From TrEMBL:
Domain Acyl-CoA oxidase/dehydrogenase middle residue range list: 132-222
Organism the protein comes from: Corynebacterium anserum
Protein name, entry field: glutaryl-CoA dehydrogenase (ETF)
Domain of life: Bacteria
Enzyme class, broadest EC rank: oxidoreductase
Length: 388
């Protein structure tokens, strides 16, 4: 009998020995250090981010796929496997790692000066500094070009005004990469929480991603030295490149949540007795489990193919959209179906599928909604942009 749903396709045989070892190490950490607490974190809508940062840093999970400055320089596939194991515990935890490494750190690594990289990246890789990424606004989500945050040059400083919304880690961040419109286009800035005019109030009463700290970034005549501007980009190419990095991690992470739902449900159906025999002995149950396992295996093979392309430098943005759209839809479908097999037990925090489903409702829409990814794929197929 397969010990994991992914054994149906012998997925692990497609990985290198190094990749399998990294996945096992991340799985051990997730199981032993994170999983015992996730119910309480989700229930209380909190996350000990400052404590977890150095632990993730010691594992090499922060900026894992970046080179130099204390970053491990691991392969894209290895990073994807890490995201899978972390999100098998909870999407909020993968978001924590993803925002740190694929958004905040990647922005500085890709678009920052040597001085900026040396100042921030080693401490962020170690988890000593926590980062956030301020792009989304209350009225500018899928359309970042309509952002209202403005940066005006004033001598050797910039004056920033505007509000960013739904920003993971912002209330606890030591480093905030914030994007703003300028006279010449768009610019990224590295902000620190003690800068005058900077505040990051937390957002409460969430029904999703509760084991994640989410907030705003409010800029009220916030003065930022020109040395804190990311010098290598002045267009939306800057933040959009970062978003593609984060989307890649979601491709794998969402499937980790789906795998955990399926493993949890298979175990439950084998012990739950209905009409004198285990629930797993019924044909309808096995049909549901089989359908979900097949979709999970197909999706994981797709994720691996995209990871191999990324490692060769051949992964195109529309291919990232293919993976993100597929993984999030399949994962959410699996989480919901698993909940039905758990019956009333499925609405408690004792079992993970409904918690994963709640989280995946957010994962489906952040870093690009399903509709936006459909349009990106449609443009690749037809050569015609249908965004407006």
């Amino acid at each position: 009998m397969p010990s994991s749903p992914l054994d149906l396709t012998n997925f692990s045989s497609l990985l290198t020995e190094e990749e399998r070892m990294l996945q096992e190490a991340m799985s051990d950490f997730a199981t032993q250090t994170l999983k015992p607490h996730i119910q309480d974190w989700f229930d209380s809508a909190t996350l000990p981010a400052k404590e977890l940062g150095p632990q993730f840093g010691q594992l090499g999970a922060l900026g894992m796929h970046l080179e130099g400055y204390g970053c491990p320089g691991a392969s894209a596939v290895a990073y994807g496997l890490a995201c899978m194991e972390i999100e098998a515990v909870d999407s909020g935890l993968r978001s924590f790692v993803s925002v740190q490494g694929s958004l905040a750190m990647f922005a500085i690594h890709h678009w920052g000066s040597d001085e900026q990289k040396e100042k921030y990246l080693p401490k962020m890789a170690a988890g000593e500094y926590l980062g956030c990424f301020g792009l989304t606004e209350p009225d500018a989500g899928s359309d970042p070009a309509s952002m209202k945050t403005r940066a005006v040059k004033d001598g050797d400083e910039w004056i920033l005004n505007g509000t960013k919304m739904w920003i993971t880690n912002s209330p606890v961040a030591d480093v905030a990469v914030v994007w703003a419109r300028t006279e010449d286009g768009y610019a990224g800035f590295i902000l620190e929480p003690d800068m005058e005019g900077f505040s990051a109030p937390e957002i409460h009463k969430k029904l999703s991603l509760r084991a994640s700290i989410t907030g705003e970034i409010v800029l009220d005549n916030c003065r930022v030295p020109d040395s804190h501007r990311l010098p290598k980009v002045n267009s939306l190419r800057g933040p959009l490149t970062c978003l593609n990095e984060a989307r890649y991690g979601i491709i794998w992470g969402a499937l980790g949540a789906a795998r955990d739902c399926l493993v949890t449900t298979i175990d439950y159906t084998q012990t739950r007795e209905v009409f004198g025999k285990s629930l797993s002995n019924f044909q309808l149950t096995q049909a549901k489990l089989a359908n979900m396992a097949v979709e999970l295996n197909k999706s994981t093979l797709l994720a691996l193919q995209l990871g191999r392309l990324k490692d060769k430098g051949e992964l195109a943005p529309h291919q990232v959209s293919v993976g993100k759209l597929n993984s999030t839809r399949i994962a959410l479908d699996i989480a919901r179906e698993c909940r039905t097999l758990l019956g009333a037990s499925g609405i408690t925090l004792e079992y993970s599928p409904l918690r994963h489903a709640n989280n995946l409702e957010s994962v489906l829409t952040y870093e690009g909604t399903a509709e936006m990814h459909q349009l990106i794929i449609g443009q690749a197929l037809t050569g015609t942009s249908a965004f407006r």
